[in-house]
Model the fold of this input.
Amino acid sequence: MTAYNWTGFYLGLNAGYGWARSCWDGFAVNTSPSGGMIGVTAGYNWQGMGSPFVFGLEGDIDWANIKGNVVCPAATTCETKTTWFGTFRGRVGYAFDRIMPYVTGGVAFGNIQANRTGFSGASSGNLGWTVGVGLEAAIADRLTGKLEYLYASIGDTNCSIAECGTAANVDLRLNILRAGLNYRF
Done:
């Protein structure tokens, strides 16, 4: 029996859950946003002949509903939210035939929305970084399934006095656990 070869281009779907920490430095309060995400993945793996090492590049973009709020001064609510999130990462795996654990890291991007009751709020698209680990397994000849954990920091958004009632930087640091199915071409 021939060993499974991970080389090739693939497309996939992923879904998962994210939980985060967000600090509103202008009020010295923290929120704990959480929620679901679903999206698409594209990538390419390369495995040398006879080598168990697999090198790859992977990108993904997800719709997200990760949000959380906290009571702020004057009995208002401060909410941090992200509605989309993506990554572009390198991957290095070690293939045990049809099972491949891997480490990954690269660029993360997404939006941060900062809203305070009674004010217009602020929103920005940000660029940051991510690292993680995963496990992918061949289900059929061209179909693989994976489970991965990512930690990502997508920076902060600046909320002005007009937008939030005080000047504040609002950051977002995400923990993501998601599963995916990929089809190799």
Remarks:
- Residues 101 and 135 are 4 Å apart (CA to CA).
- The radius of gyration is 19 Å.
- DSSP finds one helix and nine strands in the chain.
